Amino acid sequence: MTIAERIRIDIESRIASGAWPPGYRIPFEHELVVEYGCARATVGKALTSLVQAGLIERRRKAGSFVAYPHVQTAVLAIPDLDAAISERTGGYRFELLKSSLETADDGPQDFAAGTNQLHITGIHHGKGGPVAHEDRLINVDQVPDARDADFSAQAPGSWLVSFVPWTEARHLISAVGASAEVAAHLDIPKGTPCLMVERWTWRSGAPITSVIQTFRGDRFDLVATFAPEKR
Amino acid sequence: MTIAERIRIDIESRIASGAWPPGYRIPFEHELVVEYGCARATVGKALTSLVQAGLIERRRKAGSFVAYPHVQTAVLAIPDLDAAISERTGGYRFELLKSSLETADDGPQDFAAGTNQLHITGIHHGKGGPVAHEDRLINVDQVPDARDADFSAQAPGSWLVSFVPWTEARHLISAVGASAEVAAHLDIPKGTPCLMVERWTWRSGAPITSVIQTFRGDRFDLVATFAPEKR
DNA sequence: CGGCCTGTTATGTCTAGACATAATCATATC
DNA sequence: GATATGATTATGTCTAGACATAACAGGCCG
Lengths: 231, 231
Fold this sequence. Notes:
The structure is a homodimer.
Chain A: H1 3-16, E1 25-26, H2 29-36, H3 40-52, E2 56-59, E3 63-66, E4 73-78, H4 81-88, E5 93-103, E6 116-126, E7 129-139, H5 156-163, E8 168-177, H6 180-186, E9 193-203, E10 206-216, E11 222-226
Antiparallel strand pairs in A: 1-3, 2-3, 4-11, 5-6, 6-7, 7-10, 8-9, 9-10
Chain A binds a DNA duplex through residues 2-4, 28-30, 38-42, 44-45, 47-48, 58-64.
């Protein structure tokens, strides 16, 4: 364990235990330098990482203070369905329903009018049967390689994630009743509760892909492991 | 802008643009030192932050490499329902249904047998009507103040977040049909698709609270804004 | 050929000191 | 009394150099 890590963990545990409550002024850097017998840069490194974790705030001249808990934020892992389903139920398979090249005409899910888009729908299967329905658009003006990819062999999600860098994304998670079409493919009655994840992905401001995934509520859920309030 | 930030942004944009693809060996630290005319510690700081963001990997002797995109992870904001509902629909109100002190007997949602727990159920109301049902347990052995808190005035979630530090949490997000009891309180037919969030929170290994929140699917969804794969 | 040792190299961490910046406090001036 | 000024102080960032560590490459020897 490095010195900086040791300092960080020391402070962290004092905050977690409540010994240093929100608003408490932690010792000045030069005091910590004396306490740990190290250079100020090392103390600074520990404090910087605590700021990044949202545990403290540093104010010039005033000192560093234990942060007030703010909004809870979770780091939600949204893995490749490929990997996730393989891990949970085993026997992953992607069934390609449709793959057609279209020109966007400004529909609700579409890119800007005139964009060349690859429209793909398919089903993610686990061992016990269908798990999710996917309806995806890929901007082939931005991702020309997508034209030649074979999505009957590899799900478009895992293909994209390994070949196309992206910088921004947005998710919407909601509960819906299965539509007639989705219900038929997922082998459930129409109206069955399903988890719906809509995702839009950009690279440097340019839209790359948008996808609507509908999960059988009884076969899938999202797990978020947590770190306390970042920022 | 600091020198370290400038270096970081330079490298980031070369990765995002695809100029430096996954697996590419970025210039050695000593080369970057020459290029930017700064100290190695400054280059190191920039690279360290890129590692934290998951954009590169550093290997001793070999150099630093652009990381292969891995698992997508989102930073999912799970705010106080109080604040979230106020912001979206206005007119937030928490209706306390039940608040009783119990001893845990190792049920499915419970703490370890013998723990003193405060069992609270209630409804979160927005302007347009009920939004969510909440069923919560609070470990009063760990949070004795909860005994005296008035949860008809303040929802237990916002009370806890502002008074009790925590170090770990776990979320499970799924879609379910509303149970008869929940349906009655949310003013919807039984079986209506609802978003269910289960959360367990710990402080240094000791369980603090667990909660099951059931949202009307048509009145609420979760939004996650994104940064590419953070470790 | 295979295993061991050694030198080289690039990252990882740290030191001691420097200057910049911003916030605060006390003082001096209007 | 209100406002401007300057000293003080703590953080923010940086430098130049040092040593530690891990991994690789090559040579030596059984």
